[in-house]
Design goal:
The chain is of the alpha/beta class and about 300 residues long. Helices cover about 45% and strands about 10% of the residues. Strand 7, helix 8 and strand 8 form a beta-alpha-beta unit. The two termini are about 30 Å apart.
Length: about 300
């Protein structure tokens, strides 16, 4: 399992009747890879995994695996209310051909460390797949401290990576100080990517890559190769988009960027609702203004399939 590079946390596209649009999902996955992304992360927060039934989750994973045809890893996000359901999903991901798991803490119930560790360990131990722990205390109220991550790493050989979304890039430094290169560290907050690369991050689970994969890959490559001037020039243009990944309506905003960029639609499942009124108008103004100033990528962006 290669945990490096830009791995989009893909959105889940819906039809007008709010059913999963599997044809679009497959096309979207292929387009992301053609534009330089190194993997696909499905069913995460951005993928509205909490609104999908278990069967819908399995069907979507099947679609992603079939679309990429082994060209890049498909990572299944494992999230559930109950540990037993999380384990069932993890085992199903193996059977469907996924290459790795992104393991979330339990929804709703915020346990103590003993309880949370037991839940995560059960998912790690359920399959031989490589696992990435998702630390997002802002969204889930559970914070995996660097010392706790170190504890898990000592006990589980298939625990290989952390998606660090605490919004504090010092966490990357802290994990590196404790574990050296034992784990890959991927950034999960779009507008902290260059800062995190500077202190040791080796991958990016990206949100805006859903709409702007070529720019995301260029930004990551400039940052990791030490091309500081090019990186910050692109970063300055990209920031109005990247900041959309860090607000409560991030799903709606990123899907709106996809729609404006010509690769997707803005439909979301309730309880989310599409943006409306002043918020929609303001978002469109920001998006369209930035798209008009879109820089030329060193590598021509691959156009979507028709």
């Amino acid at each position: 399992m290669n945990w490096k590079g830009v791995m989009p946390a893909i959105t889940t596209s819906f039809t007008e009747s709010l059913q999963v649009d599997h044809n679009f999902v497959a096309r979207h996955c292929r387009w992301l890879l053609e534009n330089g992304c190194t993997g696909i992360v499905a069913l995460g927060s951005l993928g509205e995994g909490a609104t999908l039934s278990v069967e819908e989750k399995l069907q979507l994973l099947r679609t992603c695996v079939g679309a990429v045809q082994g060209r890049a890893p498909v990572v299944a996000s494992i999230s559930a209310l109950a540990t037993a359901e999380a384990v069932t999903l993890a085992k199903a991901a193996v059977e469907l051909g996924c290459h790795g798991l992104m393991v979330l803490p339990p929804y709703v119930y915020k346990g103590d460390w003993r309880e949370t560790k037991t839940h995560v360990a059960a998912v790690f131990e359920a399959t031989p797949l490589a696992c990435m722990l998702y630390n997002n205390p802002v969204a889930y109220g559970t914070d995996f401290l660097p010392e706790q991550i170190c504890e898990l790493a000592a006990e589980h050989a298939n625990f290989e990576a952390v998606k660090e979304s605490s919004t504090d890039v010092r966490r990357v430094s802290a994990i590196r100080a404790l574990l050296g290169q034992r784990l890959e560290i991927l950034v999960g907050v779009d507008d902290a990517i260059l800062e995190a690369i500077g202190v040791g991050a080796t991958g990016w689970v990206a949100g805006l890559a859903n709409a702007l994969p070529r720019e995301s890959v260029d930004l990551f490559d400039f940052g990791t190769s030490g091309q500081t001037e090019k990186a910050f020039e692109l970063y300055r243009w990209f920031l109005p988009f990247l900041r959309m990944d860090t607000v409560p309506h991030f799903v709606q905003l990123i899907k709106l960027v996809q729609e404006e960029a010509g690769m997707g639609n803005a439909r979301v499942r309730p309880p989310r609702l599409e943006l409306a009124g002043h918020e929609l108008g303001q978002a469109r103004e920001i998006i369209r203004s930035a798209l008009r100033a879109r820089p030329q990528s060193p590598l021509a962006s691959i156009q979507p399939e028709t």
